[in-house]
Amino acid sequence: MTDPVPTGPxxxxxxxxxxxxxxxxRPAVPTDPVGLEQAAAARMSPRARAYVVGGAxxxxxxxxxxxxxxxxxxxxxxxxxxxxxxxxxxxxGKRLPTPLLLAPVGAxxxxxxxxxxxxxxxxxxxxxxxxxxxQGSVPMETTAAAMEGTPHWFQLYWSTDEDLVDSLLARxxxxxxxxxxxxxxxxxLGWRPQDLNLxxxxxxxxxxxxxxxxxxxxxxxxxxxxAAAKAAGIRPDxxxxxxxxxTLISISRRYPGRVWQNLRSPEPRAAVETFLDVYSRPTxxxxxxxxxxxxxxxxxxxxxxxxxxxxxxxxxxxxxxxxVSNHGGRQVDGALGAxxxxxxxxxxxxxxAAVILDSGIRSGSDVFKSLALGxxxxxxxxxxLYGLALAGxxxxxxxxxxxxxxxxxxLGLAGAAAAQDLGAExxxxx
Length: 430
Fold this sequence. Notes:
By secondary structure, this protein is an alpha/beta fold. Helices cover 47% and strands 10% of the residues.
C-alpha cells in the first residue's frame, strides 16, 4: 500500500508558487526576509522607512536580535515519520492554529492608507491573532470588526491620565479583545536618529493617534485644554511655514469630522498637543501594574521584559503572560538580543505564565528556534509592515503564509511532528 503524500501548509504554499511559476507568475512579495525588507524599503517614503526600518542609536540592538537567533542552530533528526505536522499551540487556555501573532505596530498608515484594516483582514484570512496597537491609525472598534471572529488582543500604552487608561481598557473589553498587553519599555521614546534626522514624529502630524481621537475621555481632555487656554487668554503662537501648513492639513485630514471644518477649528491641533502630553508615563511602576486586576477582566501580559528578575516580578503579580521584547531594537541601543533574554527567562517562568518572543523574528526557522528556546508563541512585527507596504492586505497575508509554510517545512525536516513538543534538544549553540 502506498503511503499518502505528506501535506501541510508548507507543501501547499510551495505548490501554489511553483504552479504559478509555470504560467510565468512570480510572488508579488519576496519570500525571503532580506529581499522582503529591501523591496519594502524601496517602496516606502523616507518618513515611513525611517520609522519602520529604523531603530535606536546605531541599530546595534536590531543586529543583536538577529545575532541572538543566529547563534542557535537547528539539529535536524532523520526518519521520524513527521509527514503530518501539528502547528497548533495552547496560549492563555485557547488553542491557536499556529504559534504566530501579529505584533502591534503604530502609525501603519505611513506605509499604506488602509493601515490597521488591511492588517486585520489579512489576520482574519490566515487565522493569525492580531494585537491591536494603542497607536493605531484606525479606531479599535473598526479594526476589531474586520477580524471576523479571529482573536484579537489590545496593546496598552499607560497614559499619564488614569481615566484615559480605564477608558481604553473598557473599550478593548467591549470590542471582544481576549487579552491586554501592557507595553512597559516605551515610557519614553528612545533615541531614533533616522526619525530625528528628518524631524519626523508621526504622532505630531496626527498619524497613529486614532485610538485617542475616538475616545470620549481623550476628547474631554482636549476640550478642557482649549477652555483653560481661552480662560487664560492664551492664543496659539504658530510660525507659518510650508511645513506647518502641511502638518495642519495632515492633522485635519485625520481628525474626526470634515476636513475643511477641522482646518478652521483649534480642536485638531489641540488634540495633537494633548496626545503629546498624555501619551506615556515615565513614572510607571510595578505597583501600577498591580492595579490592573481591579480595572479589567482581561488576561494581562507585560511586554518589554528582558531580565529574569523582572519576569519574577510579573509572576509575583499574577500576570498571565510575559512578552520578551526590546521593542524591535527601537528603544535602547546596545541592548541584549531578545532571544538571548528568552533563554534566561523561559526557565524562570517554567509554565506559570505564557511566554511570547517579540523582536527579530523574520522566518519560519526563527519561529522554530523561539519555541525550542521556551516561547509559547512569537509575534511578527516589521515583516508584516513590509508586506503591507508592498501589496496591502494581500501582502500581509502572503508574508504570514510564507512564514507559516517555512515553519511547517522546518518542523518536518527537523524530524518534529508538533510545534508544542519542541525543546532545547532541537538546538545547539555556537
